[in-house]
């Protein structure tokens, strides 16, 4: 399957479902590997030149942000990109690994959550992104949020 978006395309197998949503100059790509058994390979093609593989595990969902030929790929799909301008990115996230891919033909300096990085042309790096959680969302992102309280169960069965 070939997902087309003029200057940026993604080559994917048929088992990968995808969607793209523009947000000003930034584009949000969502990928879902519907195959329960096999890892899928996604390959970006920027201005006719193929980039490196992005592997999507079986049943996995992934979000990829793109602006100015820079792909930002967080490991956690719940990461929210709240701003990007001039290769300065702001991601609401817990600390996690994020992969950056420079699809452009020239070197780029990129800043993600205050972390300054240099990307050579057509390269990929993975780095540990610092946490950036707004106070109003802090309660929803804690590790304990999904923990359920212990339940006291008593046998209320009847003889019938």
- Helix and strand element order: EEEEEEEEEEEEEEEH
SS summary, helix count: 1
Rg from C-alpha positions?
19 Å
Number of strands: 15
* Helix amount: under 10%
Question: Helices, strands, pairings?
Answer:
Blueprint: E1 2-5, E2 8-11, E3 16-23, E4 26-33, E5 40-46, E6 49-50, E7 54-56, E8 61-67, E9 70-74, E10 80-85, E11 88-92, E12 96-102, E13 108-112, E14 115-119, E15 124-129, H1 138-141
Parallel strand pairs: 11-13
Antiparallel strand pairs: 1-2, 2-5, 3-4, 4-8, 5-6, 5-7, 8-9, 9-12, 10-11, 12-15, 13-14
Outline the structure in words:
With 160 residues, this protein is mainly β. It has one domain (2-142). The protein has one helix at residues 138-141, and strands spanning 2-5, 8-11, 16-23, 26-33, 40-46, 49-50, 54-56, 61-67, 70-74, 80-85, 88-92, 96-102, 108-112, 115-119, 124-129. A hairpin with a 2-residue loop joins strand 3 (16-23) and strand 4. The radius of gyration is 19 Å and the shape is globular. The chain starts with a strand and ends in a 19-residue tail after the last helix. 22% of the residues are buried.
Throw out a few tags for this protein.
mainly beta; 5-stranded antiparallel beta sheet; 1 helix; globular
Summarize the structure.
Helices cover 2% and strands 51% of the residues. The chain has 160 residues and is mostly beta strands.
């Amino acid at each position: 399957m070939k997902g087309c978006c003029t200057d940026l395309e993604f080559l994917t197998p048929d088992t990968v479902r995808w969607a793209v949503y523009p947000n000003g100059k930034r584009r949000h790509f969502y990928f879902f590997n519907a195959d329960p058994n096999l890892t899928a390979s996604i390959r970006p093609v920027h201005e006719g030149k193929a980039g490196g593989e992005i592997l999507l595990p079986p049943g996995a969902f992934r979000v990829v942000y793109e602006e100015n030929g820079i792909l930002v790929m967080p490991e956690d799909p719940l990461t929210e990109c709240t701003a990007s301008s001039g290769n300065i990115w702001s991601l609401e996230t817990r600390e996690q690994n994020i992969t950056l891919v420079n699809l452009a033909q020239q070197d780029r300096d990129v800043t993600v959550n205050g972390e300054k990085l240099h990307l050579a042309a057509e390269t990929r790096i993975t780095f540990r992104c610092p946490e950036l959680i707004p106070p109003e969302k802090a309660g929803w992102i804690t590790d304990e949020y999904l923990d359920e309280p212990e339940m006291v169960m008593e046998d209320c069965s009847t003889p019938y």
